[in-house]
Design goal:
Helices cover 53% and strands 13% of the residues. It has 404 residues and is of the alpha/beta class. An eight-stranded mixed barrel has the order 1-2-4-5-6-7-8-9, surrounded by four helices. Helix 3 packs parallel to helix 4 and helix 11 runs parallel beside helix 14 (327-352). Helix 9 links the parallel strand 8 (211-214) and strand 9 (233-234). It binds ligand C2E and calcium ion (CA) (2 copies). The site of ligand C2E has 23 residues, from strand 2, strand 4 and strand 6.
Length: 404
């Protein structure tokens, strides 16, 4: 059937409003609740048959007709989004656009108009850009990307880990999220190398301050593994298949909860801290104060010295606040704050040209505080894990898998 589809068919289908969106839920691995959905196009023919995008999107993309479909569907997307937001104002909806959509003004113009017309918070919409390697360097594309950012619409790099979305593109364009491709997720099960690639991609995105969405999660074990690796958003058949709006709304109505185990978050927090310490030590010994030339100096990081703004601090004073009142959480504040104070003293000493011996003895003090921070994080994790009910089937399953 796919081979028979022509542009004339697509034009007619668009005119007859035969394209609809199905929505696939996304779950926040931090809260364990649905946090939004991805809109996935379907062609619903007059006789009710559904045609998957794999059968017509490639033709639409190669002919450029995709831009007309995208723009036409936007209004529908915003109407649906408004209905979802009435249900839960924290939800976000993402939709797919191709790199080509940025070569003309139509897409961003339409998003602009739709945002105004439907009076929705632009942050409730996210654009997933497929084949980002095709984003060209033309002034038009650059200007349109900028306009989208200024509007406050988030941008995700789709299919991360495939040939079409490279590391190069991550630094070049203002993405706020990456979507790990389902190929990366399924290959994870093959061997250790592929697992490491997935885990390192999650860590890299975290360090770049990007949200990491994993797609194609088909089992609880995959969900748990990704969660423990610090992934923050999950999507896949194990949670739900894509479905029409009405079904999605009743799905939301069930208020289901998924696991939100803290191992991944505490792992990230520890790595954030270890990295901060390494950057500081590096700066003290080789950074601004050495006799390095400017080119060398520009390679060192500038660790964030404000304890509320370093990565650990942002977690602690942000999401981590949900543990406030827990003695272990509260106990972390002091050594962390002292650690930053100690770091500032060290930088001043290095700047004054103090001897290495003096620096080292001061670094030892800092290391003690650093160890306290790590212990607090690990103890908090222990406390949280032991709170989990051991008799839930999922948890029993998890324990048996780990002890196997
Ligand atoms: P995508 O953006 O990578 O979307 C994910 C695809 O994986 C969807 O297929 C989804 O139904 C499927 N999927 C989700 N969870 C699982 C899972 O656990 N296992 C497996 N095996 N598959 C899963 P779908 O809906 O057929 O869409 C295919 C592709 O078509 C999308 O891939 C996207 O690139 C494109 N597409 C869909 N809607 C649009 C659209 O409105 N505009 C454009 N330009 N492309 C679209
Ligand atoms: Ca997508
Ligand atoms: Ca994909």
């Amino acid at each position: 059937m796919a081979a028979d589809i022509t542009i004339t068919d697509l034009t007619k289908a668009l005119a007859n409003n035969e394209f609809i969106y199905f929505y696939q839920p996304k779950v926040s691995m931090v809260t364990g609740r649905v946090c939004g959905s991805e809109a996935l196009i379907r062609w619903q023919r007059a006789d009710g048959t559904l045609i998957s995008p794999a059968h017509f999107i490639p033709l639409a993309e190669s002919t450029g007709f995709i831009s007309e479909i995208t723009v036409h569907m936007l209004d529908k997307l915003y109407v649906d989004n408004t209905i979802m937001l009435d249900f839960d104002p924290t939800l976000t909806t993402s939709f797919n656009v191709s790199a080509k959509d940025f070569m003309t003004d139509a897409l961003v113009d339409s998003i602009h108009v739709a945002t105004d017309t439907h009076e929705v918070d632009p942050a409730s919409i996210q654009v997933e850009i497929t084949e980002s390697a095709m984003l060209d360097n033309s002034d038009k594309t650059i200007a349109n990307m900028k306009r989208l950012r200024q509007l406050g619409v988030a941008m995700a790099m789709d299919d991360f880990g495939t040939g079409f979305s490279s590391l190069d593109m991550l630094s070049k364009w203002p993405f706020s999220a990456v979507k790990l491709d389902q190929g990366v997720i399924s290959r994870m099960q093959d061997d250790k190398k592929n697992k490491t690639i997935a885990v390192s991609s999650i860590r890299m995105a975290h360090e770049l301050g990007m949200e990491v969405v994993a797609e194609g999660i088909e089992s609880e074990a995959t969900y748990m593994f990704l969660q423990n690796s610090g992934c923050t958003v999950a999507q896949g058949y194990w949670i739900s298949r894509p479905m029409p709006l009405e079904s999605f709304l009743s799905f939301l109505g069930k208020k289901r909860r998924w696991h939100s185990m803290p191992i991944g978050l505490f792992y990230m927090a520890q790595l954030d801290h270890i990295r901060w310490r390494k950057e500081l030590i590096e700066l003290i010994y080789f950074g601004r104060f050495g006799d390095n030339d400017g080119a060398k100096r520009s390679l060192w990081y500038e660790p964030e010295m404000d304890h509320t703004r370093c990565m650990l601090g942002r977690w602690y004073y942000g999401e981590g606040r949900k543990y406030a009142g827990n003695a272990l959480y509260d106990a972390l504040a002091e050594p962390h704050q002292e650690l930053h104070q100690s770091g500032r003293v060290l930088l001043e000493m290095a700047e004054r040209g103090e001897s290495k011996d003096k620096l080292v003895s001061r670094i030892r003090k800092l290391s003690k505080l650093s160890a306290q921070v790590i212990v607090c994080l690990q103890e908090l994790e222990n406390a949280e894990m032991s709170k989990l009910r051991r008799n839930t089937p999922q948890f029993a399953d998890l324990i048996s898998k780990h002890s196997a």
